[in-house]
């Protein structure tokens, strides 16, 4: 371990070893990223689902306040799904909407699920291959260089990693297993984000048809440490200063906070989601589910996860697109039961304090 390279956080001028995770879908807005830097840590913009021009605008907005931040990208790794299987899932969603409307949720009766032939990533249908504007986002990063780029869902080609590094950025790859860590190390990235299955939101797994192995963060960190000398950032279920201390003692250079920041005023988390973290709508625990997006993700339990998790197939982004209108309508109606309430296992500790305060408090006495 003594030969492990550190210094990734120091190289960008961070003074505390705490990172604000990229969280797509709203939470990681520029305000959160700027607050993370002001606290001495590092924050990430989440490029996932965003249009390239909106990513460029957010990068420029953050750059007006700080040069110290990163951008996170979804690496194209779609999970195709057959028409019949998708149709079955659509019918289950329709059934849930009917049941939910009969239970008193008027909004659910108004939702019209899209026709499955219009969705991307459906086999034997004319859906386009979904790349989340990968090429265009690389061009945005070439035109607007940032010091850190993190990647999730898969490993890009060596050529694309080289393109990102040629912008001057250090590239970090999210890994969820020893095998992924070994491949990423061989691919020439600058650091690894070691993400355990306790993490909130989508798992970064490169093999999304298999639910990520339920392995404790410290165990995963130790297993990965033995196989790479890259700097490691640890993610998943970190809920207090002790959690940060333990990952640093286990050899991580940084601790990544996601769920712990979802209720902070700087984060753009949907208000219904924020409230659900404080007062969960169902059994007060999280569950790994493909019901909303077709990729394994950890969420608070609610009526939709209870009804659909057991039967939901894999299929990304088809399932994500299929449920988009439903989720939007649930949010507009302030109904947590139809929302993807992404949350890590440590959600109960999430507070509504300013992000900088949370990050400094979690850092405790640790400095870089
Ligand atoms: C709402 C939400 C959205 C997320 N979106 C992304 C994302 O866009 N890209 C990514 O690499 N990870 C994403 N993640 C995972 C986080 O980056 C991080 O690994 C995770 O939150 C750490 O676990 P914790 O939530 O238990 O702290 C998301 C997590 C949450 C809770």
Question: What is the CATH superfamily classification of the largest domain?
Answer: Aldolase class I
Bound molecules: flavin mononucleotide
Q: Ranges with pLDDT <50 over ≥5 residues?
A: none
H/E element order: HEHEHEHHHEHEHEEHEHEHEEHHH
CATH topology of the largest domain: TIM Barrel
- Distance N to C terminus: 18 Å
**What is the spatial order of strands in the main beta sheet?**
1-2-3-4-5-6-8-9
Please, how many helices? 14
State the helicity in percent bands.
25-40%
Question: Largest sheet, if any?
Answer: 8 strands, parallel, barrel
CATH class of the largest domain: Alpha Beta
Molecular structure report:
By secondary structure, the chain is an alpha/beta fold. The protein has two domains: 8-78 and 130-266 and 351-363, Aldolase class I (TIM Barrel, Alpha-Beta Barrel), CATH 3.20.20; 83-127 and 282-338, no CATH class. Helix content is 36%, strand content 13%. It is built from 14 helices and eleven strands. It has helices spanning 8-11, 30-38, 52-63, 83-102, 106-110, 134-143, 158-166, 178-186, 217-225, 241-249, 271-278, 303-308, 318-332, 355-363; strands spanning 18-20, 42-46, 69-74, 148-152, 170-175, 191-195, 201-202, 232-235, 254-257, 286-289, 297-300. The chain has an eight-stranded parallel beta barrel, surrounded by seven helices. A hairpin with a 7-residue loop joins strand 10 (286-289) and strand 11. Helix 2 packs parallel to helix 3, helix 3 runs parallel beside helix 6 (134-143) and helix 4 (83-102) packs parallel to helix 13. The chain is globular, with a radius of gyration of 20 Å. The mean pLDDT is 96. The structure holds flavin mononucleotide. Flavin mononucleotide (FMN) binds at residues 21-25, 27, 46, 48, 72, 152, 174, 195, 198-202, 204, 235-238, 256-260, 342, 344, 346.
């Amino acid at each position: 371990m003594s030969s492990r390279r550190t210094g990734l956080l120091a190289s960008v001028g961070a003074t505390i070893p705490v990172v604000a995770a990229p969280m797509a879908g709203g939470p990681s807005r520029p305000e959160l990223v700027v607050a993370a830097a002001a606290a001495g840590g590092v924050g990430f913009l989440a490029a996932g689902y965003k249009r390239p021009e909106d990513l460029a605008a957010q990068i420029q907005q953050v750059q007006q306040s700080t040069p110290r931040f990163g951008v996170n990208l979804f690496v194209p790794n779609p999970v195709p799904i057959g028409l019949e299987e998708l149709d079955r899932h659509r019918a289950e969603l329709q059934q849930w909407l009917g049941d939910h409307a009969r239970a008193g949720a008027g909004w659910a009766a108004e939702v019209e699920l899209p026709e499955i032939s219009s969705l991307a990533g459906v086999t034997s249908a004319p859906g386009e291959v979904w790349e989340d504007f990968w090429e265009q986002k690389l061009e945005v990063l070439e035109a607007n260089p940032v010091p850190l780029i993190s990647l999730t869902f898969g490993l890009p080609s060596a050529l694309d990693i080289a393109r990102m590094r040629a912008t001057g950025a250090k590239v970090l790859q999210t890994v969820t297993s020893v095998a992924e860590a070994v491949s990423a190390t061989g691919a020439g990235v600058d650091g690894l984000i070691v993400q355990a299955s306790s993490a909130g939101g989508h798992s970064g797994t490169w093999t999304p048809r298999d639910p990520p192995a339920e392995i404790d963060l410290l165990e995963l960190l130790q297993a990965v440490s033995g196989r790479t000398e890259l700097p490691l950032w640890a993610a998943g279920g970190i809920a207090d200063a002790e959690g940060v201390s333990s990952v640093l003692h286990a050899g991580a250079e940084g601790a990544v906070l996601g769920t712990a920041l979802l209720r902070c005023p700087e984060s753009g988390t949907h208000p219904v989601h924020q409230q659900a973290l404080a007062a969960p709508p169902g059994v007060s625990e999280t569950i790994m589910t493909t019901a909303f997006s077709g990729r394994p993700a950890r969420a608070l339990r609610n009526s939709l996860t209870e009804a659909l998790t057991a039967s939901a197939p894999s299929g990304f982004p088809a399932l994500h697109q299929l449920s988009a209108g439903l989720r939007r309508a649930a949010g507009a109606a302030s109904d947590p039961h139809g929302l993807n309430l992404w949350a890590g296992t440590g959600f109960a500790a999430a507070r509504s304090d300013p992000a900088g305060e949370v990050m400094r408090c979690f850092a405790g006495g640790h400095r870089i």
